[in-house]
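We were asked to recover a plausible sequence for a given structure. The inputs and outputs are reproduced exactly as logged, with field labels preserved.

PROBLEM: sequence recovery
POSITIONS: 311
GIVEN STRUCTURE:
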């Protein structure tokens, strides 16, 4: 019996790993939470100590599985196999174009909710200039994504060989909209520098926000560079818009961290102005880049006298 248990622990199954890692993560989160707020009574204190011990054991064992049993590779293979079992998830794993459109649609939903929230708050009169400018900025981003996704769904169902004049124009027009968003962004940043607006995250949400922003920034930059190597204007448009969205997320993280950790000895207005200027510069550069490249593509298409034909 003990030999069998030892062998199972020595070479854990995938099902065991699926249970182990979330359990370890929950124990770590619980431990950090208890260390932050402290146990409120004796029962909670006892539970906390048990959790600390159990968490230490599961963490040590998790590290062992990662190092000694190639658990991560096995989980990746298992996850890929599970995803490929269904047509929808298989397409999501294998088709880069479809994956880009799917996650862009998910991001669009969140951006739309955030834009609507800022619009409602502005209408209600709470820092109307700040929230109104943010609403305007995100409405521009939403409109661009909706236009690209609608075109892709309606006109881009089959395999295609060449870039159409419509796609090049759409790419250029989205660049014009990005340049226009800079105005709304400047208004919002101006209000923030003047101390009449800002992003706030309370309690431990600041750590979640920081982790999310870092992942979002790395992913957006990686996808932006990857999309640049393709000749698909619609995918490039979506990646560029995501990068513009990420630039504002970095600015939001900075102001939220000032709010959460204090600003003693820090010139907040200066830091916000510098980061805000950098954010505007990124969005403006993306817009100009899209206008220039879109115009170049339109000229090339007209000179060569072709349109993309579906096969």
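RECOVERED SEQUENCE:
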């Amino acid at each position: 019996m003990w030999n069998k248990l030892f062998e199972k622990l020595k070479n854990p199954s995938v099902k065991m790993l699926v249970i182990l890692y979330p359990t370890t993560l929950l124990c770590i989160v619980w431990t950090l939470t208890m260390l932050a707020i402290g146990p409120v009574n004796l029962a909670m204190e006892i539970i906390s100590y048990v959790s600390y011990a159990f968490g230490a054991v599961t963490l040590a064992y998790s590290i062992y599985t990662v190092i000694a049993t190639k658990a991560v590779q096995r989980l990746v293979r298992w996850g890929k196999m599970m995803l490929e079992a269904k047509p929808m998830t298989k397409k999501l794993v294998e088709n880069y174009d479809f994956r880009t459109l799917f996650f862009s649609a998910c991001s669009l939903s969140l951006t739309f909710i955030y834009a609507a929230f800022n619009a409602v708050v502005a209408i209600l009169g709470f820092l109307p200039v700040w929230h109104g400018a943010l609403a305007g900025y995100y409405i521009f981003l939403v409109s661009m994504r909706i236009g690209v996704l609608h075109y892709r769904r309606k006109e881009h169902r089959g395999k295609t060989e060449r870039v159409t004049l419509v796609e090049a124009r759409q790419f250029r027009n989205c660049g014009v909209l990005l340049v226009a968003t800079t105005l709304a962004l400047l208004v919002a940043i101006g209000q923030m520098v003047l101390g009449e607006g800002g992003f706030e995250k309370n309690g431990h949400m600041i750590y979640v926000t920081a982790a999310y922003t870092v992942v979002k920034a790395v992913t957006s930059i990686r996808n932006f560079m990857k999309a640049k190597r393709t000749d698909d204007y619609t995918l490039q448009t979506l990646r560029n818009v995501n990068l513009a969205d990420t630039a504002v997320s970095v600015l939001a993280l900075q102001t939220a961290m000032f709010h959460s950790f204090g600003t003693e000895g820090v010139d907040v207005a200066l830091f916000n102005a510098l980061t805000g200027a950098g954010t505007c510069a990124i969005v403006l550069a993306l817009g100009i880049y899209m206008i220039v490249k879109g115009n170049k593509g339109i000229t090339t298409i007209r000179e060569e006298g072709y349109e993309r034909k579906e096969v």
